[in-house]
Amino acid sequence: MASAPLKAQLTDLLNSMFAMDFLDEQFKELQMLEEASGPGFLAEVVTLFCGDAERIIFQLSVLINEPVVDFGKVDANVHQLKGSSSSVGAKRVALVCVKFRNVCLENDKEGCIVALHEIRHEFDELHKKFQTMLQLEQQIRVLDSK
Amino acid sequence: MASSQVVKVLIVDDDVVTRRIYRTMLLRFGFEITEAGDGKSAVSQFLIGNEYDLILMDNDMPGMNGVEATRTLRGMGILAKIIAITADANSRGALLDAGADEFLLKPVNFTMLTVILKAFNFLN
């Protein structure tokens, strides 16, 4: 089957994402939900998450660069990102969010700046892998439909 | 139960990703789903006369949180089953005291949710 090499590539990608803790068991839960409810669910959730994460990370950079930082608002945004990343199984992003909330509690602006860079880095890495995953899935669907 | 035979569910969570996941989980059972992004919106659903059999209630939401929303709904005489779902284990007592029927820690998995739905007789 023409899609076999792409399926192998997708399997390798997902295995490495789990092995490197980009993803955890919650993502497997979503994969099982897609098997039951039909294709498109994972793509929709991943796309929703990435869009939401981009929005929150931008908002965080605005808040942290204010002359007087509202740590309450920063924490609320980080909490939201932690929630959505946990829901999709984005383990490394969720873990960095926990660290971020801790420095927020201490009203540590410098710590928040460092944590924001970490979140940006972790999310960018995950986002690239998600994009590759979705592209492979799309190519597989096209080949399998022929 | 609400007057229709279809189980009507209100999902209350400020995270759009989480709401989408719960929606997919519950649509598998043929439930009818409505979403609210915070506690005040959830209460408003009942104030305008909508009826629900089941509420999935997050706690940490802007404005009115899950504890306040649950307490308000119970005070209004709302008898719908409320499953409180939150990442904060410390809020369990407050949510149950406010009137929630069950408590789940995030992230929720499908098996855990199914067990509770069966216990509430929402599944045949």
From TrEMBL, chain A:
Name of the protein described by the UniProt record: Histidine-containing phosphotransfer protein
GO cellular component, one term: nucleus
UniProt lineage: Eukaryota, Viridiplantae, Streptophyta, Embryophyta, Tracheophyta
Highest taxon of source: Eukaryota
Compartment(s) where it occurs, according to its Swiss-Prot or TrEMBL record: Cytoplasm, Cytosol; Nucleus
CDD domains the record matches: HPT (cd00088)
Transmembrane segments: none
Organism: Rhynchospora pubera
Domain notes: Histidine-containing phosphotransfer domain (HPt) contains an active histidine that mediates the phosphotransfer.
Swiss-Prot/TrEMBL keywords: Cytokinin signaling pathway, Cytoplasm, Nucleus, Sensory transduction, Two-component regulatory system
Family annotation (InterPro entries): AHP1-5/YPD1, HPT_dom_sf, Sig_transdc_His_kin_Hpt_dom
Function noted in UniProt: Functions as a two-component phosphorelay mediators between cytokinin sensor histidine kinases and response regulators (B-type ARRs). Plays an important role in propagating cytokinin signal transduction through the multistep His-to-Asp phosphorelay. Functions as a positive regulator of the cytokinin signaling pathway. May play a regulatory role in salt and drought tolerance during plant development.
Gene Ontology terms for molecular function: histidine phosphotransfer kinase activity; protein histidine kinase binding
Matches recorded under PANTHER family: HISTIDINE-CONTAINING PHOSPHOTRANSFER PROTEIN 2, PHOSPHORELAY INTERMEDIATE PROTEIN YPD1
GO biological process, one term: positive regulation of cytokinin-activated signaling pathway
HPt domain segment(s): 44-127
TrEMBL record, chain B:
Species this protein is from: Rhynchospora pubera
PROSITE patterns per record: RESPONSE_REGULATORY
UniProt cross-references to SUPFAM superfamilies, sorted A to Z: CheY-like
Lineage top rank: taxon: Eukaryota
Coiled coil: none
Annotated ranges, domain Response regulatory: 8-121
Name of this protein: Response regulatory domain-containing protein
InterPro entries: CheY-like_superfamily, Sig_transdc_resp-reg_receiver, ST_Response_Regulator
Positions where 4-aspartylphosphate occurs in the chain: D58
Biological process (GO), any one: phosphorelay signal transduction system
Assigned keywords, A-Z: Phosphoprotein
Pfam families: Response_reg (PF00072)
